[in-house]
Write a structure and sequence with these properties.
The chain has 2 domains: 189 residues, Glycogen Phosphorylase B (Rossmann fold), CATH 3.40.50; 169 residues, Glycogen Phosphorylase B (Rossmann fold, 3-Layer(aba) Sandwich), CATH 3.40.50. Helix content is 44%, strand content 14%. It has 15 helices and 13 strands. This is Glycosyltransferase family 1 protein. It comes from Caldilinea aerophila. InterPro entries: Glyco_trans_1, Glyco_trans_4-like_N.
């Protein structure tokens, strides 16, 4: 059973993970296997309409965050186990029902609340640590979304290494180089110039946008527009304030949330993609950008080097001058951009949801054999 209750707009990253995983799992089931989804009626109806008959559903109106789930979900799972309908439960979030009554798999993403305590309340940090530790103790096996995430988990919590497997994420199939007409349509829709540097992601402090703006401000005034696309949290206005103070507010555009269907063309149209994050569990925007043929420069922090391999320019996220120099190279060197474009496409091709689901199924099957 895969819990898809987090497939909502409140969890864009986790929602994307769980829906892509569910689709890829459904395509690889053996004749004697079936995938059971636990979710809200609307989530289930949308998914089952697109999938094979091997996918069945259990409707559940409980949020993953209510106390009610602590007894409702285990009750439901035990009933399924008693009828041999379900053999394991996979939670894609660190809030797991207590004593679920089935062997469990947990997906673990990152340690942002603990790595950046200055930006998270003490209560939130304590709650994260407690609930994560409880979920990790409950889970028979844990899936980390990168080797860096796995190392963080093992260094922070009491978990046996053999219980944790790193299975990398992937870009969706729609992220691929777009035709020029599609790119021009999106550029016109957002009133964008032909050349621009692109960042996609939130403005949370660990994303390091203040350093990105400072590095950009050191470029010549003729540098292409810097486009910052993604959800804007008004609690963190520092990057916008920095652009105003440095006199580049006319050349740094904060686009806000971009329609998902426009992202592939936006990546494809970028002169280069720049990602200065100080910490990522995986770093999906970097992979999406490479899959769309954008030359990529990203920080050398956490999981990013393992995602990009040798297909991107790396820099220290705390070195503003180094970031300026990297952007200058990308702007001036067309041959470099072409090399990065080609190597990025090759690198992105090594990641797929089919591979992710296959590795996940291996864990499911191993657990089912042990429990048989």
């Amino acid at each position: 059973m895969l819990d898809i209750r987090t497939a909502t707009s409140h969890f864009p990253g986790i929602g994307r993970y769980v829906t892509n995983l569910a689709s890829a799992l459904a395509e690889q089931l053996r004749p004697d296997e079936r995938l059971t989804l636990l979710g809200h009626p609307a989530q289930i109806e949308r998914f089952v309409a697109e999938q094979r008959a091997s996918v069945i559903s259990l409707l559940c109106d409980d949020s993953p965050f209510t106390l009610q789930q602590q007894w409702r979900i285990p009750q439901l799972l035990r009933a399924q186990r008693n009828t041999a309908a379900v053999s394991l439960y996979h939670s894609p979030y660190y809030l797991m029902p207590y004593r679920p009554g089935l062997p469990t798999v947990l997906t673990f993403y990152d340690l942002i609340p603990l790595r950046f305590p200055a930006y998270v309340s003490r209560r939130a940090r304590m709650l994260f640590r407690f609930t994560a530790q409880m979920a990790l103790c409950t889970a028979r096996h844990v899936i980390a979304i990168s080797e860096a995430s796995r190392r963080d988990l093992l260094a922070t919590f009491s978990v046996s290494p053999e219980r944790v497997t790193a299975i990398p994420l992937a870009a969706e199939a729609r992220f691929r180089p777009q035709p020029r007409a599609a790119v021009e349509h999106v550029l016109a829709r957002y009133s964008l110039p032909a050349e621009f540097l692109l960042y996609v992601g939130s403005n949370k402090p660990h994303k390091n946008l203040v350093n990105l703006v400072h590095a950009y401000a050191a470029l010549p005034p003729t540098a292409p527009l810097l486009l910052i696309a993604g959800p804007w949290d008004a609690r963190h206005p520092d990057a916008r304030q920095a652009a105003q103070q440095l006199g580049v507010s006319e050349r740094v555009r904060f686009l806000g949330i971009v329609d998902d269907k426009d992202l592939p063309a936006l990546y494809s149209g970028a002169l280069a993609f720049v990602f200065p994050s100080r910490y990522e569990g995986f770093g999906l925007p970097v992979l999406e950008a490479m899959a769309c043929g954008a030359p990529v420069a990203c920080s050398n922090a956490s999981s990013l080097p393992e995602v990009v391999g040798d297909a991107a320019l790396l820099f220290d996220p705390n070195d503003v001058q180094a970031l300026t120099e990297v952007m200058q190279r990308l702007i001036e060197d067309a041959a470099l951009r072409q090399r990065l474009r080609e190597s990025g496409l090759r690198r992105a091709g090594t990641f797929s949801w089919r591979r992710n689901a296959s590795a996940t199924l291996d864990i499911y099957r191993c657990m089912a054999d042990i429990d048989a």
